[in-house]
Specification:
Blueprint lengths: L3 H14 L11 H8 L3 H13 L3 E3 L7 E3 L23 H11 L8 E5 L5 H14 L9 E5 L7 H7 L10 H4 L4 E5 L6 H13 L8 E7 L4 H9 L3 E4 L8 H19 L2 E5 H9 L5 H19 L7 E3 L7 H4 L9 H7 L4 E5 L4 E5 L12 H14 L4 H26 L3 H7 L2 H18 L5 H14 L11 H10 L1 H18 L5 H11 L13 E7 L3 H13 L4 E6 L5 H15 L5 E5 L2 H14 L3 E5 L2 H14 L3 H15 L1 H5 L8 E7 L5 H12 L5 E7 L3 H14 L1 E7 L10 E3 H6 L5 H6 L11 H11 L5 H18 L5 H19 L10 H7 L1 H10 L1 H7 L5 H12 L2
Parallel strand pairs: 3-6, 3-7, 4-5, 5-6, 8-9, 12-13, 12-14, 14-15, 16-17, 16-18, 18-19
Antiparallel strand pairs: 1-2, 8-10, 10-11
Helix pairs in contact: 1-3, 2-3, 3-38, 10-12, 15-16, 16-19, 18-19, 18-21, 20-21, 21-22, 24-25, 26-27, 34-35, 34-37, 35-39, 36-39
């Protein structure tokens, strides 16, 4: 006899096979329950089991839709949504939800598309219409009627007439869209009366009068309440990202798409250089994709008019063809330099036509080695940029951002040319060679660096060419000069003295640019920009300058310039300190995280909150130098004996900071018990002391750890296990380490002392339930009406396990209170009882984003099984119970 699970799966397969070659078939629990004459709760449980077995997939939206896993076949590749740039990345979830809405069995999931002006809402709606026709959701000749509210702004009576047909229904947009799709654009400008009429129509969709699907778009603005009101009256809500939230690759694809379209319209090819293409990729578009498209149209139209009389097949685009705001893209070049150069290499031109895109490298005229010079490179670049139509502001921005790259090209060119001293002596004055040789040796000794020969040769060639040219012009901006001076103050002073020697020897006057360039020569191997591919170090210590002094020493010794400081003075109020600390962390983070070295707990607490609030990863290492110094000060003040004070400090050090002690003073016993706590305030130490006092077996090392980071904990356990055998982990929370039994601290202290050795002799510890959930469920079952208590018990117990895990343990009172609260909340929602707002919701959710997102996932099973939804007010209540706030 077939099981219920087999019956459900085979039924879904049978129906889905009829859809093969089309878009996939979606099912709801209600639909399956009616067709198979089974209870909806049982269907829901079976479907979730099939999802876990990867036989069935489910959507992430509301209502939840299920489909046979991977049954889409090759037809999916031909979906009209493939026209969307980003349909597999930034718009993937939106496309998936849209398909589910359109293929919903009853065809009545009306949709609202929300996003900033110009982000593609109307185009997205047109693809929904195309998708619906291609998949027989609507007939091939079904109408697609667009009603643009902007054309009726301020004309309430005309909207009521033309859209809703108040006076003559047959002339209305609703009537004309019958059997198809009605797109109502920009409903955010509706008045309260118009909104009310729209909501009434939405309620009646599917009856004899309104057999249509309604898609609305709304512009994201400051009227959050209005948008929420709109969204609550639609079955499906699609949020489209603004252009700056899309990836750089997607924006590049959009630019290419628009340029190809313009080339097709002109019937000619469009050619554009890499600098202009980068600028188009970087400038700010307030009107999102629409502005990007319109600005490209504007630039191409200007170029077409300019070249109209020219019979050439190719039209060149220049920066002057575009609106002035496009030129500001150069300002962001330095910020996105690495990403942009990987996407659009410099010294390339791109040709767009209706058929394809061609990329071509253009070669520069390289001067002879004896003319290698930074000034030549800059002047050559300026001439080249001017020829491409870039104005002075844009040229300055590009040159500033490109200085370091050009400088490295100069030294690389010399390195690749394999210049030797014989060659140098033929083209460079011997006085320059002698001065540079002496200068490099002194720099090497003074700054403890080893310089490659390329630095010597390139500096000789550079100076030789510089002395032969007009150096009266300043080619670097003041900002570029100040950046080098501030970053390399000592090196700059040293180079200034060298330039004075050059001036005396050759009776010339060198510009400040020259000192900067020579400074860059001897600092070539030092990164002047922050490395964006690696984490950084933050030293955060109480006091006015302690952290800064340590960071300065570290950076001076390592030359990595990746260590930063935050000084927390004792007279600063915590609100100000928190804001300052957050600003520092956000400024130094490269997206790869921060290792923070700190001295006391208040800094750790702030860092944990900032990490949660900003999603910046911070790993913390406590070096309690301040606390040790305070303790030492107190001890020497209480005794005149040096040895007594020192011995007291050693004992205190070992007792309060066992993690440091155990790194060099661990016993050599083979067996180990690890005690664990989250707070780092002695819980693990107290467990250790308890075991040392009462455990009869003495040949066991007991190692206390206070670590709340799972990755670091696993690393520490691995170090221990390489030398010793870990018997158990005993602590306030279960780290769930494979192969190492866990004993809770409550179980440890509930076990009589005389049976402690028996407890620790067990290979597997069965934890007894401290709470009688069965009794609680039986009591609630007598109070609740219309609630499937068996299903509620199963879901709640599973949810409580997960909640305990993410909260790192709950007290018995918390656990019982939370269990009862969630059960009662489910009962109230099932019976449509009034739910109350949490006035502190915004504050609670903003400070607990991570646990908020985790709770949404944990409670999803309950929501599906009972067809309810925990809103943000209720999630805030649950977080309050967990956090005891």
């Amino acid at each position: 006899m077939k099981s219920n699970k087999d019956m459900v799966y085979e039924h879904m397969q049978r129906i889905s096979n009829k859809y093969y070659g089309k878009e996939r078939k979606f099912f709801t629990t209600k639909e399956l329950a009616e067709e198979l004459e089974m209870q909806r709760s049982n269907i829901s449980s079976i479907l979730n089991t099939l999802v876990k077995e990867r036989k069935v997939e489910k959507s992430s939206g509301r209502p939840v839709l299920y489909s046979i896993f991977n049954l889409e076949g090759k037809k999916e590749e031909n979906s009209c949504f493939k026209k969307l740039i980003g349909y597999k990345s930034s718009l993937k979830n939106q496309v998936q939800l849209t398909k589910a809405a359109l293929l919903y069995p009853e065809n009545n999931l009306n949709t609202i598309i929300i996003g900033e002006p110009g982000c593609g809402k109307s185009y997205f709606a047109s693809l929904m219409y195309e998708f619906a026709k291609n998949n027989n959701v609507i007939d091939k000749d079904s109408p697609f009627v667009v009603f643009n509210c902007k054309n009726y702004e301020g004309e309430e009576s005309k909207i009521q007439e033309d859209l809703f047909g108040i006076k003559n229904y047959e002339n209305s947009a609703l009537y004309k869209a019958n059997g198809g799709i009605l797109l109502i654009d920009h409903i955010n400008i509706f008045t309260a009366k118009e909104r009310e009429l729209l909501f009434k129509v939405l309620e009646r969709i599917g009856n004899n009068k309104y057999k249509i699907m309604i898609i609305c778009t709304a512009d994201m603005d400051n009227k959050k309440t209005t948008l929420e009101e709109f969204a609550s009256n639609f079955s499906v809500r699609i949020n489209l990202p603004k252009l700056e939230e899309r990836t750089m690759v997607e924006r590049f694809n959009l630019v290419q798409k628009f340029l190809i379209k313009e080339a097709s319209r002109m019937g000619r090819k469009i050619k554009i250089d890499s600098e202009l293409l980068r600028s188009i990729l970087l400038y700010k578009c307030d009107r999102n994709i629409k502005q990007l498209r319109d600005d490209i149209k504007f630039g191409c139209a200007n170029a077409y008019v300019r070249e109209h009389e020219n019979s050439d097949e190719v039209i060149y685009l220049y920066i002057r063809d575009f609106p002035t705001n496009v030129r500001k893209g150069f300002l962001y070049y330095k910020e996105y330099r690495e990403e942009i150069e990987n996407l659009i290499p410099k010294n390339y031109s791109y040709t767009f036509s209706e058929e394809n895109i061609e990329k071509e490298e253009y070669t520069k005229i390289i001067k002879n080695n004896e003319n290698i010079n930074m000034y030549d490179m800059i002047d050559s670049k300026i001439i080249e940029l001017k020829e491409r139509g870039i104005d002075n502001e844009g040229i300055t921005t590009i040159i500033n951002a490109d200085i370091l790259s050009s400088f490295k090209n100069l030294t690389n060119k010399v390195q690749n040319s394999k210049i030797d001293k014989d060659y140098i002596s033929k083209v460079v004055d011997i006085r320059i060679i002698n001065l540079v040789e002496k200068f490099i040796k002194e720099a090497s000794n003074r700054f403890d660096r080893i310089y490659p020969e390329a630095v010597f040769y390139s500096l000789c060639l550079h100076l030789s060419a510089s002395l032969e040219r007009d150096n009266s012009l300043q080619r670097l901006t003041n900002g570029q000069i100040m950046e080098v001076i501030e970053n390399y103050r000592e090196e700059y002073t040293f180079c200034m003295k060298f330039c004075v020697e050059i001036e005396k020897e050759f009776n010339v006057r060198l510009p400040i640019d020259e000192i900067v360039f020579i400074t860059m020569f001897i600092c070539e191997n030092i990164t002047t920009e922050r490395n964006t591919n690696k984490p950084v170090v933050l030293v955060a210590i109480h006091g006015n300058s302690a952290a800064s002094s340590i960071a300065d020493v570290v950076n001076s010794i390592t030359k990595n310039n990746n260590t930063y400081a935050y000084n927390l003075s004792f007279d600063k109020d915590m609100k100000t300190a928190y804001d300052e600390f957050k600003e520092v962390i956000q400024e130094i983070d490269n997206g790869k995280g921060i290792i923070m070295i700190y001295d006391m707990g208040s800094i750790k607490a702030m860092a944990e909150m900032i990490s949660q609030e900003t999603d910046i990863k911070i790993r913390m290492l406590e070096v309690p130098i301040t606390l040790l110094a305070i303790d030492c000060s107190r001890r020497v003040n209480m005794t005149s004996s040096l040895e007594e004070a020192f011995e007291g400090m050693i004992n205190s050090y070992h007792e309060n900071y066992p993690m440091i002690k155990d790194s060099y003073e661990r016993n050599k016993n083979n067996k180990v018990i690890v005690t664990l706590c989250m707070s780092g305030k002695g819980g693990a130490i107290q467990i250790k002391k308890y075991l040392e006092t009462h455990l009869k077996e003495k040949n066991i090392d007991i190692i206390p750890l206070a670590i709340n980071n799972s990755d670091y904990l696993l690393s520490e356990l691995e170090k221990i296990r390489k030398k010793q055998t870990i018997l158990y982990i005993i602590g306030t929370y279960d780290p769930q380490v494979y192969g190492i039994p866990f004993i809770s601290v409550s179980k440890l202290f509930q076990t009589p002392v005389e049976k402690l050795d028996v407890l620790l002799a067990l290979e597997n510890v069965e934890l007894s339930e401290a709470i009688d959930y069965k009794t609680i469920i039986n009591y609630l079952g007598e109070q609740f009406k219309g609630v499937d208590m068996k299903l509620l018990e199963k879901d709640l117990l599973e949810s409580m396990k997960k909640i305990k895990k993410i909260s790192n343990g709950l007290t018995i009172d918390q656990e019982i209170g939370l269990f009862m609260h969630i059960a009662c909340t489910v009962n109230r929602m099932i019976n449509k009882e009034k739910m109350y707002a949490n006035i502190h919701k915004a504050k609670i959710l903003s400070k607990n984003k991570q646990i908020y997102n985790q709770l949404k996932e944990i409670l999803e099973e309950i929501e599906i099984d009972f067809n309810i939804l925990f809103n943000d007010d209720e999630l805030a209540n649950i977080i309050s119970l967990i956090k005891q706030i």
